[in-house]
């Protein structure tokens, strides 16, 4: 037999009965205490995890609800400001039915239009100024092109079919234009 085999056999020699009993007794006393401690730690960790998960789920629901409420209430301010314009239009329509003074109705409609535009400007709406400007595909949509009336209008916007608008410096509607060629 080689030395390695002798060492392995010595390590595998059976223990005395007394040693076995002592070791199992010590293990049986220590094992339940260790198991109970580990089980308590596991239970605490699972409880913390469950609570944290529930808190996070509640947070997601709450923020989602708040976002929906914010979106719904954001339009409320604008609409309430526009109600005065709506009232003015109602009065103008009623006045048009009975009046013979066309000039007065025109002035009234012009005042309502100016009031309406001023409210929208206060809310961040801005009209695009595009006539005579070079065509910009990022801001404009070319509906058609026509021969340029003059050389300086070549590749520039000649006419606007539908105005474009910015809301707080973001394009919310692209201008539909006619480009000179």
Notes on the protein architecture:
- 62% of the residues lie in helices and 16% in strands.
- Strand 4 and strand 5 (170-173) form a beta hairpin.
- With 181 residues, it is an alpha+beta fold.
- Helix 2 (17-98) packs antiparallel against helix 3.
In short:
By secondary structure, the protein is α+β, with helices and mostly antiparallel strands. The protein has 3 helices and 6 strands, in the order αααββββββ.
H-E string: HHHEEEEEE
CATH architecture of the largest domain, by name, is Alpha-Beta Complex
Determine the number of helices (DSSP H or I, runs of at least 4 residues).
3
- Oligomeric state of shown chains: single chain
Helix content: 55-70%
Q: In whole angstroms, how far apart are the ends?
A: 103 Å
Average pLDDT works out at 83
Number of domains: 2
Overall morphology: elongated
Task: Tell me the name of the CATH class of the largest domain.
Answer: Alpha Beta
How would you classify the helix and strand content by structural class? alpha+beta
Q: Name the poorly predicted regions.
A: 15-26
Radius of gyration: 41 Å
Strand order of the largest sheet: 1-4-5
Query: Beta fraction of the residues?
Result: 15-25%
- How many strand segments? 6
Largest sheet: 3 strands, antiparallel
CATH topology group of the largest domain: Hemagglutinin Ectodomain, Chain B
């Amino acid at each position: 037999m080689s030395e390695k085999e002798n060492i392995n056999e010595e390590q595998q020699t059976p223990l005395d009965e007394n040693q076995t009993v002592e070791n199992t007794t010590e293990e049986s006393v220590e094992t339940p205490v260790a198991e109970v401690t580990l089980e308590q730690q596991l239970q605490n960790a699972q409880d913390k995890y469950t609570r944290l998960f529930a808190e996070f789920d509640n947070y997601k629901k709450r923020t989602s609800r708040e976002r929906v409420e914010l979106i719904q209430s954001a339009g409320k301010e604008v609409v309430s400001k526009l109600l005065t314009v709506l009232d003015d239009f109602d009065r103008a329509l009623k006045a048009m039915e009975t009046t013979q003074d066309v000039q007065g109705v025109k002035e009234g409609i012009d005042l309502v239009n100016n009031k309406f535009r001023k409210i929208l400007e206060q809310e961040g709406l801005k009209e695009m100024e595009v006539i005579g400007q070079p065509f910009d595909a990022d801001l404009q949509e070319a509906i058609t092109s026509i021969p340029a009336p003059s050389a300086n209008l070549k590749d520039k916007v000649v006419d606007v079919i539908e105005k474009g608008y910015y809301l707080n410096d973001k394009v919310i509607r692209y201008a539909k234009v006619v480009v000179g060629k």
